[in-house]
Design goal:
CATH architecture: Up-down Bundle
Number of domains: 1
Number of helices: 14
CATH class: Mainly Alpha
Strand content: under 5%
Radius of gyration: 20 Å
Structural class: mainly alpha
Helix content: over 70%
Distance between the termini: 29 Å
CATH topology: Growth Hormone, Chain: A
Order of helices and strands: HHHHHHHHHHHHHH
Length: 401
């Protein structure tokens, strides 16, 4: 009886991993695909890239505002209901993009629908994983984030195929309906198993609460670090495909840039996930920031299409690692008592960078006809983030988590 109950619990935990992977796959894969529709909106309505970037930035603002609240709801009520509601709204939002004819409608779809799905997809899934895998938190977070990489590789080419086969409106409608179905299914797998009586309860009892973060220097440093790298992690996936098209790539070939980022990020996610469990969050952050900064400097010197593939491969490793490292690092420093809320607080400050980066890059392009100043700005921010990481206090993996 004891053995069968253990097997049942293990099975349930890995169903949660599957649900988290499906959520990450869909939300981030569609986010990566949005840039492929820039040309369609430009041709149809003459909208600028500043406008097209601004609506996504608005969604990142919504994400930041709601992330901590979504983490709180997950901490209190569990992830299933939160992810189900947000997932359906996210899918509906992409379907509604197929019907927009005015800029305000674009902002409404991103702010009221897509932004809600973005707000909880990371904080809820990764907080749930942090609670379920005490000793292998880093590597299991990496496994979940491989779902993100799979979405980055699979959904942009699918979007490009649907645009070529039908048109951009039908492509968005199909992607939105499919996303709602997949996200709802993923949410149903996310019910947390009981942790009563285990060591996890002791870990949660020893952890910090959100209100303890007000004067905590490490928390505010993590917020600044998140800002420094999320500026790049939101801007490059959105603009790199259309940048490739500006250099002469076809839409299908430009979509492959996003797939290369996704493929390279798999290595980054799994490598950094394993490193977190061994060397801790601070050192793992250093491993992530180095390729991120190097790739942004590479983009400054690339002027031929084929060379972009080398740049995005380097970028992809850092991209994948950075999307993996923060949740285990927050658990490492602050425990699990209010992990969702604290992680959501860090994400809030990161989303300020995520919201501003794409629109600034779009404005730079509209004014100057190129992305070089944007790449230089992002490289400088990444360098600042690396310096902040070097000033973080040392921590021993597993002390609180």
């Amino acid at each position: 009886m004891y053995g069968s109950s253990v097997i049942a619990r293990v099975d349930k935990r890995y169903l949660i991993v599957l649900g988290a992977c499906l959520t990450q796959f869909t939300v981030v894969g569609l986010l990566f695909s949005y840039g492929l529709f820039f040309k369609s909106f430009e041709v149809e309505y003459g909208w600028s890239r500043t406008l097209l970037s601004s609506c996504l930035s608005f969604a990142f603002v919504v994400m930041g505002v709601l992330a901590s609240f979504g983490g709180y709801l997950s901490d209190r009520y569990g992830p299933r209901l939160v992810l189900a509601v947000a997932g359906v709204l996210c899918g509906v939002g992409y379907a509604l993009l197929s019907q927009v004819t005015q800029p305000w409608q674009l902002f409404a779809a991103f702010g009221l629908f897509i932004g809600v799905g973005m707000a909880v997809h990371d904080v809820v899934t990764l907080s749930t994983i942090a609670r379920q895998f005490e000793r292998r938190r880093g590597i299991m977070t990496g496994v979940v984030k491989v779902g993100t990489a799979a979405g980055q590789m699979a959904l942009p080419p699918l979007a490009a195929f649907l645009i070529a086969l039908y048109d951009w409106r039908l492509a968005l409608m199909a992607l939105g309906i499919g996303a709602a179905a997949v996200l709802l299914f993923g949410a149903l797998l996310m019910k947390s198993p009981s942790t009563s009586g285990g060591s996890l309860d002791k870990t949660e009892a020893a952890g910090f609460r959100l209100r303890d973060m007000r004067g905590n220097r490490t928390f505010w440093m993590l917020c600044a670090i998140q800002f420094a790298y999320l500026s790049s992690l939101s801007t490059i996936p959105l603009h790199i495909a259309v940048h490739g098209m500006d250099l002469g790539m076809t839409p299908a070939l430009a979509a492959m840039l996003l797939s290369v980022i996704g493929a390279a990020s798999v290595l980054g996610r799994l490598t950094v996930g394993a490193l977190i469990d061994r060397i801790g969050g601070r050192r793992a952050l250093i491993v992530c920031f180095l390729p991120l900064t190097a790739s942004l400097l590479l983009f400054l010197s690339i002027s031929v299409p084929w060379a972009l593939f080398a740049g995005v491969a380097v970028y992809g490793f850092g991209h994948g690692g950075l999307f993996t490292v923060m949740s285990p690092t927050v658990a490492e420093y602050f425990g699990l008592k209010a992990h969702g809320a604290i992680f959501g607080g860090v994400l809030f400050f990161g989303t300020i960078g995520a919201a501003s980066g794409p629109v600034v890059a779009g404005r730079i392009f509209d004014l100057m006809g190129g992305y070089a100043p944007a790449f230089a700005t992002l490289a400088a921010l990444a360098a600042v983030g690396l310096m902040l990481v070097l000033k973080l206090p040392a921590s021993r993996p597993g002390v609180l988590g």
